[in-house]
Amino acid sequence: MTAEPDGPEDRLRRFATIWSRAVFPVTSTSLTRPEFEQLLIPLARRLSDALRARTFEAAEGQAVGAALVAAHCTDPEALSRALDCVDAYLVLYCGEDGPQEALRTRSARLQHAMAAGFAQALRERTLAEQEAISRAALSARSAVAEALHASEARFRAVFEGAAIGIGIADLEGNVLQVNGALLRMFGGSEQLMLGRKVPEWTHPEDAPQVWRLYEELVRGEREHYHVEKAFYRPDGTALWTNLTVSLLRDADGEPQYQLALMEDTTERRLLNLRLRYEATHDALTGLPNRTLFFERLEKALSAGDGQRFGLCYLDLDGFKTINDSLGHAAGDRLLVEVADRLQSCATAPGEMVARLGGDEFVALTTGPGTEHEVDELAGRIMNALVTPIRIDGRELTVRGSIGIVEGPAGERGPAEVLRSADITMYRAKSAGGNRFELADPEADARAITRHGLTTALPAALDRGEFFIEYQPLVHLGDGSVRGAEALVRWLHPQHGVLGPDRFIPLAEHTGLIVPLGRWVLEQSVRQARAWQERHAGAGPLRINVNLSPCQLTHPGLVQDTVDILEREGLDADALCLEVTESALIGADDDLLKPLRRLAEMGVDIALDDFGTGYSNLANLRRLPVSILKLDRSFTQGMQQFPADPVDLKIVEGIVSLAHSLDLAVTVEGVETGAQAEQLRILGCDTAQGWYYARPGPPERLHELALVDATG
């Protein structure tokens, strides 16, 4: 028969068994090990419940740590073994099928809370013992005349049985008595302890006030003091203690002895240092993490006069490709190698390297001469990345983009400096990567403005902050107004009127271009219908609306267009959709299918900015376009007299080719009468530009069309 799988309670008891076996040998208790195991079961259950609780409760871990002290597990080794046991087995036996990474993070936080609870309970116990010792000492001194023998016996019992170290010295610093706990803490003989004077117990880590307080006490100017102090053991290792020194006076109130009470905090200090290290260093690379870096950066930025800082913000180019192709394990090994190389670049005083997360690293240099030092640091980093990294038999070339911020301390905060470095790094990446750029306040301001516009876009559409201006399309043959191009504008509350070049790329990046484009199409079609009603006898006015490449791939493009035309009552041949040449270079049939459907309905399709996309002219035959809009760069040479003969030949060739393919030609950017006349002679059909009218409200087009209709 197959054994039934262990249930949660069995796994919990197994965890408690392992815990008891680890801790019992260093526990001062009269219980047997099985009895001690029974005592740990409810503590294990509390840890198990806290591990899987919806929200983290530090109090649960603290309560378990305090319970260990109550169970006489006061030896620092007992805490260390308990934490090691929780670290190794709590998630294994009590985590069930939860997310392992989250459970391990929760386990680490529980260990921290246990250590804090253990330390607090031990401190409270120590203070209670200190108070009992002080009371016993006072009682012994006051009862010398009445019951010297009894008081001496009680004092000796407390003195020898206490869990904390106790030493008595005279006011000259001669050590007179030490108890067993103190001898065990120092690991030396009683003769060695008694042979040294108190002022000889110095340590380089002593705080400045330690020996000042001592002098005040032996002079009788204070009754006691409490400090954290380190001592050297005979073997040269450090013993860290919580030290309380009290002054003992005789019956007449004169200072006579000094009483020292010491609590060994070495293990606790090491644990705190370990937890502090884990909290401030990256687990993968061992470099300082974001937390520690911000502390150092804040300190550098608050330095005194004359101090400066330099910051290099590095992002690896193409790291996602390595992760996707070789796997995250290879990516991690690459990051470790990069971290080692960066660490070797920042070895001078005042320099540090940290990992912010992912493939982002920072290097910081401080001092009075960082203007040159930060450039040299960036150069060393770029050189360190030149040599390929070999992983799993492959040589990987590592490239990086660096943003540099340098300046005097005291002018900016950490968040502002890091934001500027981040913006500058992306500027280096946009310039092709594998380079470093210096921060530019104007570029920072533009990037910040760009971000602000991006976040404000959705609400702007809802609040009706967009409006449309119209630029007329004029027939070059007779000068009549044949329609207009719709150009969307944004009336921003702070920045005023913004042209499409300021926000259309942002809308494309965020996906808002689809609802914005639908709104522009709807408003433009409605306006075209209004023009038709006002100019019934002057012929239809066509409306041209620009389509973003993102709109071309949206599945609702055709249906949205049909719905809008039907709802507004506008014929399809009164609408022209403009698509840039670059958007259709290499377009496959799937991309062209919606344009073909619209063209079959009667909607004109114009190839905008023609001549800038370097497309093969032969491809025009497969595109469902009926109009070429010639880019203004081809006609700028015609603004002067005589016109550039090369431009004339190019435009003449394009017009001839277009007409042979039954395509009309529209020219943008017409600014002079001579330019318009030359284009008419070359055979262009329609034109638009400032020579005729700047983009404006729909009423202006109405006036132009009315003038044209009345002669």
Architecture overview:
The chain is an alpha/beta fold and 711 residues long. 51% of the residues lie in helices and 20% in strands. Helix 23 (645-660) links the parallel strand 19 (627-630) and strand 20 (664-667). Helix 2 (33-52) packs antiparallel against helix 3 (58-70), helix 4 runs antiparallel to helix 5 and helix 13 packs antiparallel against helix 14. 33% of the residues are buried. The model is unreliable at 1-5 (pLDDT under 50).
Distance between the termini: 104 Å
* Percent of residues in helices: 40-55%
Q: What's the tally of helices?
A: 25
The overall strand count is 21
Q: Overall 3D geometry?
A: elongated
Outline the low-pLDDT stretches: 1-5
What strand line-up does the widest sheet have? 13-14-16-17-18-19-20-21
Calculate Rg over CA atoms: 41 Å
Mean pLDDT: 85
Percentage of residues in strands: 15-25%
Keyphrases for this structure?
5-stranded antiparallel sheet, alpha/beta
Describe how the helices and strands are arranged:
Blueprint: H1 8-23, H2 33-52, H3 58-70, H4 76-94, H5 100-142, H6 144-161, E1 165-170, E2 175-178, H7 180-186, H8 190-194, H9 210-218, E3 224-232, E4 238-249, E5 255-264, H10 266-280, H11 290-301, E6 308-317, H12 319-326, H13 328-345, E7 351-357, E8 360-367, H14 370-384, E9 389-391, E10 394-396, E11 399-408, H15 414-430, E12 435-438, H16 441-462, E13 466-475, E14 481-492, E15 496-498, H17 500-510, H18 513-534, E16 542-547, H19 549-552, H20 557-568, E17 575-580, H21 581-584, H22 589-601, E18 604-610, E19 627-630, H23 645-660, E20 664-667, H24 673-682, E21 686-687, H25 698-709
Parallel strand pairs: 11-12, 14-16, 16-17, 17-18, 18-19, 19-20, 20-21
Antiparallel strand pairs: 1-2, 1-5, 3-4, 4-5, 6-8, 6-11, 7-8, 9-10, 13-14, 13-21, 14-15
